[in-house]
Amino acid sequence: MPRIPVYDTPQVQLQGLPNVTRNIGPVGQGMQALARGLGDMADAMTKAREEADQIRAEEAFNKLRESQNILTYGDGKDEVGATNVKAGNVFNRKQPFGQEYMTRFDTAAQEIEGGLANDNQKRMFQRAAGRAKLEFGGQLARHEAQEGNVYRESVYKGVVESETEHVAKNFMDPDSVAQSIERVKANTRSYAMRQGMAADQQDMAVKDAVSNMHMLVIQRKLDGDPTKGVSADPAAAKKYYEDQVKAGVIVESSKAAKTMRDKIQADERQMRAATAVDDVWKNSGPSDDNAAVNLDAMSAKLRSEFKNDPDGLKVAMADLKERASAHDYSARQRDSQITGGIFQRVIAGEPLSTIRKSPEFKRLDGVKQIQMIEKIEAYQKRGQDGEGAQLDKFASYWAVASNPQKLAGMPDAEIFAMAPKVGSALVKQLLSNKQQLIKGEDKVRSATIDNDQFKFWASEGGLDVSPKKDSDAEKTLGSLKYRVETLIDDQQRTLGRDLTRKEKDDIMKRLVVEVPVAYKQSVFGVTRSGVENKRLFEVQNPEAITIRGADREAVVKALQTVGIKNPTEAQIREGYVRLKAK
After folding, report:
1. 316: how many CB neighbours lie within 10 A of its CB?
2. Are the C-beta atoms of residues 222 and 259 closer than 8 Å to each other?
3. Which has the closest alpha carbon to 64: 127, 120, 19?
4. Out of 108-112, 157-161, 378-382, which region has the weakest mean confidence (pLDDT)?
5. Do 541 and 573 touch, CB atoms closer than 8 A?
6. Alpha carbons within 13 A on the beta-carbon side of 267
7. 576 near 568, Cβ under 8 Å?
8. What one-character DSSP code corresponds to residue 450?
9. 114 three-state secondary structure
């Protein structure tokens, strides 16, 4: 049996493991990359959170901006807005204006901030909100300062206006005037200081304000106050002025002082002149309402009294002439009242025998009754048929019809009194125009033709629109005025409405068109005929209008183009006028 060997010593030498010969480098680099990737991911997550916080903070600030804008400018509904609070309303509040709106701003900011998710969002929002708060505070401060100036100025003006009114009503009470002046003085000083004026400028402002108050007292003494039985007193005004000059309150060399001196002198002169005219009128004036005014004798007395005062004489003579004119006008009005009442009966067709029994006729003395009978007989003899040929009457008609203000103020009797001059047709036209004036200016423009409109087209037609009184040009204008108003009235009745301005223009343009008119004249037994140009309104017989040659052909051709193949003479005449009026 074989023997099993026995080993007394180890057979495998104990040695260290050999170095690894396999390459493990790629595994180490991957770990490093992983570490870096994890770090980058953490940074990205942090940045994303930061960006999310920034966006949330911006969204919150948008809300704050919206609140700020509403607090500043209002929302058009319930919120007025700080900048819309004006003048005294800025200061008449339960708490200071700026504090009130800043508190409301803070409240809005806190509410918005409370809705943010974390401290980072809140910090970013707070930084933006702080800047907005500074901006809002600046806006409030500027607005308050601006409105403070406005309010201060309005209050100061209110002081001056109220005290001015007080002085105007109490100018005869020295103590009351003094109190008003002291209040104006104190407020002017305060206002000037707040405006940043220098000391000398403040003094000048106060002096001007006080001087103006004294000037008002002087003016009121010149004017008087009839409601309180206080007569104008130029002498008292002059003394008050001189006293204030001596006291140094009014600077005599100033422009305002010179103006006031001139007023005082003018009023003194006026009062002296009025007194002198009163005396002359009393001693040498007309004996009764119907007596004539002896102007020469009274003028001579005034020249003697004012021989050393030419300016005073001018005032006195003007006063005298005004009184004489008023006297004559009153006499004419009384005569017109009587004449108008009589001719109103004449136009109505009453016989002379009835008119002679009327109250108006009996008011005339014997001589005037005879003259009135002659006027009536002449008027009736002329007859209505002959009125159209009387061009002279249009001058009197034009003098009234061209002056709406004068016509509106004329009594009906005065218009009726014009009948002997203008005839019944024009009297009725004037009465109609007056009634339209009474209804109102707009109605007048629709029922007649505007005076400026009339003059424009009359001038375009070559007429003199500023004629001398009683001239042929004045008569012509009167005739044209009557014709155009008659046509306007006829067309308005036909159409049942008021004519437009353009339609009235068309009427005027047609009436001033020149048309060829055939005529015949007999001079010393020799008859002459021919064609002359006349304006349409001057043509008494339209059939005398003669259109020949190229003009006729053009009119006929124009009529045919609108469907009138065989126009009549009347249509040709109408077409000719319309073509020339374009």
Report:
1. 27
2. no
3. 127
4. 378-382
5. no
6. 21
7. no
8. -
9. coil
